[in-house]
User: Fold this.
Amino acid sequence: MGMAMAFVMNKSACLLAFSLAVLCSASYAATADKTATPLPGKVMPRELAREAYYQIETNVFDRAQLQDAYTKINLAADQNRDEAFIYVAVSLGTLVAGYTIGDWYDLTTFPGDVVQQALAHARQAVALDSNLGQAHAQLARILIVKKEFHEAAQHITKAKALDPNSFYPWYFEGIWYEKQGQVAEASQAFDHAQQYATRAHHPMLVLKHREYVAKIGGDFALQEKLLKDSIGLNPNNAYSYGSYAAFLMCKGRYREAIVQWEKAIRITPYGRAVSQLEQAKQYIAQEKTKFAQAKPKTGCA
Assistant:
């Protein structure tokens, strides 16, 4: 099933040997977070792993939160390493650890065999508990990344049957349609996902993909509205401002883009925001130069 990713409590030992081949990745290794809030009483391994999954999904760029989530996965494995939800969480964590930049559902976003590792963990989760809807949903997610749409559809259908009121089968179905350019069907699936949203971050996930669907459909006014809505839902998220700034850059609205990049940088000065802010300023300078050169020809005062 490929190489497995192990989460570690220290830098010298792999604590979770999920398959015959174990990868202790320095970039993904999480030390025990002594500042993390202690968990009350004894928490069952499935609940620990489930909470870790949500924590990873909500905090993909927050190292401290990710380390805390990995610690929970290790605690769950200490109790029962055959708990299927552990592998669901590790599958997602593997994608997060390997993410570079760009579309989370594009194979080229992930280097090496990251997606294959994530796929192996998702398949292991299904093998351990074929009645766990979240395992089928996570497997469908990885298959969408690989553009294996036929098998992905089978697992989405299975996840719906097992957990009809779950957010995730509908959410991944929306992405399944989105990646095949089926705008109306994607929108309908996201409507269902929104109906079953139970976590605070679920509406943000849906909103982001509604924006993609609007872009695919060529509805740029709706796309801009959704980007603004995303900022409204999460005004302290630098990447929401960055996404809107990138849209404005594509539309040649550089002065507006500069405002949004600067807002993003004030929250989190991440690399792309910094570099794109400078690029936008260069475009403005070029426009001024062209305008100045055009004055003698146009007669502008």
